[in-house]
Structure formats: C-alpha cells, structure tokens
Amino acid sequence: xxxxxxxxxxxxxxxxxxxxxxxxxxxxxxxxxxxxxxxxxxxxxxxxxxxxxxxxxxxxxxxxxxxxxxxxxxxxxxxxxxxxxxxxxxxxxxxxxxxxxxxxxxxxxxxxxxxxxxxxxxxxxxxxxxxxxxxxxxxxxxxxxxxxxxxxxxxxxxxxxxxxxxxxxxxxxxxxxxxxxxxxxxxxxxxxxxxxxxxxxxxxxxxxxxxxxxxxxxxxxxxxxxxxxxxxxxxxxxxxxxxxxxxxxxxx
Length: 252
What we know:
By secondary structure, the chain is of the alpha/beta class. It contains eight helices and eight strands.
C-alpha cells in the first residue's frame, strides 16, 4: 500500500504544529520529520512531543530524516539519531550514502560506506528500525548502477533505499532504476522538476508519476509517497500538489 505524505524539510520555516495542521488540511497521511529544523538529534523532549502531535492528528510518522552522511564526519552521533528516531516512532532513518559522487569514490571509500552502513543498520535494528539511503546526487546512490552495487555489497536486512527521480535521466531510465531498486524500497520522494531543476506543479508530471506509482504499487509492500520541495515553497502550491497526489493514488 502507498500512503500519501509530506517531507517536513519542505517547510522548515513552519513549526511542527503548523506542519501537522497543514498535512491534516491537505488530507495526507504521513510525515517524514526533519532531523534538524523540527526534531533535532538528541532532543528527546521534542521527539516525544512531535510523536504525540502526529499521532493525535491521526497521522503516521513515515521516517526520520537524519541528514547523517555515512562514511563521513558528522557533527552529531548516530546513537543520538537512533534514540531520537525511536522516540519519534519512525520505522526508518533516512541517511546519505556518503557525500561524494560515485564517479569520484574509490574502492576504499566505498568499503568505508559499506562497513559503516552495516554498523548503523545494526544499531537501528536493535530498536526495531531500518536505515534508508537517500537516492540522490553527490552520494553513492547518484546512479542506479552505483546504488544497486552498494545495496548488494552491504547486504543487510535493515538497509533500505528511498527513490526519487535522478534529474539527468530519461523517463525510461528512471522507470528501469525504480524497478531495480524495488526489493529494497522504503519510501518515495515526490516532486516534479524533470527535466531540469525548475520546480513545477506536480500535476504537470502526471504521465511520468503515474508510471512510477503504479510500479511501486505492483511491487507490493508498505510505502509512503511524500511531497518534497514545492514550487516557490508555497503552502498553497503544496495543497494543490496534495490534491494531485491523492488523485493519483486513488486511481492505482
């Protein structure tokens, strides 16, 4: 089943209370909470409060967006991330697969990311969670081939992957990449920029996104498709995009 939702980094200027009200108004189901602006790492009081806000509104916590870069120096500890995510009630912790384009990553760097990924996954699994790689440029998931290589090398049951369109790929390449990553898929970040990086109304991406969402649905499992980075950072545009996303999901 695919649940509709919002990535809260889309509206860092809003408080958690305002984010919950906005998602409720939009009629969406889930929130991925931002680990910097909304639920800071190690802030256990904030984690408990935001968890209660989410649940009381009838929403689900889809994930904790930690912005932890595996294999890189970070200004915070992953045990703080795990504790915060557990109190928040997140089923998965979103992390970055390093912070280097795959074309510039040698074997030593990849092995460092693989080794640390297993360690982090063990920590998350001990609390009943998984970790999920951001599917993004400037990391080892910046191409489908590199992402699949990483997931196979890590080979850990608590390591999953998000998916979102790589901005320079063709629609055919994007669909193939999504199909390949389905065995590891946790959630999907939904936006319409392709081609290029100019944000557009989600409705303009209907032809592409209906194919993606049908592919996710056919793969089975439980996932959240969450709106991220709306045009002009506008709440009005977000509400329009939410209608679009719900319409798409209802037709699958």
